[in-house]
Amino acid sequence: MGCADNVREDKNPQSAGFAVSETGSEFVLFLAGLSGSLPNRQFNMFMFCLNFFGSQSPADMAVFDDITVVKTMRLIRVIRRLRELQRLAAKGGENV
To answer: Distance (Å, rounded) from C-alpha 60 to C-alpha 58?
Structure first.
């Protein structure tokens, strides 16, 4: 998606493992929303749906191709598991 310059590693124990710059494309803002680090902005669920599905308009099409959708779903699953482990660690859970 051409956003490698806007994404960097984030080793903070509470992070999703990456951070993005505040300026960038729609996709960069989308990644910021997934990471939970959208400074001074709210995650735009409408744009999330448009990127994944497109709209009902005959001239419209989804922004993400099938490969990008699959990779994004994998990323979402990894972030969900990471957040689960972070919650367990915060509680002092075992196996963490």
So the answer is: 6
Cα gap 25→38, rounded to integer Å: 13
Exposure b/e, 43-62, CB count within 10 A at least 16 = b: eeeeeeebbeeeeeeeeeee
Q: How far is CA 9 from CA 15, 35, 63, 77, in A?
A: 10, 12, 25, 18
Per-residue pLDDT of the chain (96 residues; tens, 9 = 90+): 567 788 888 888 888 888 888 776 777 777 888 888 776 777 778 877 877 888 888 887 777 888 988 998 999 999 999 999 999 988 886 665
**How far apart are alpha carbons 78 and 59 in whole angstroms?**
34
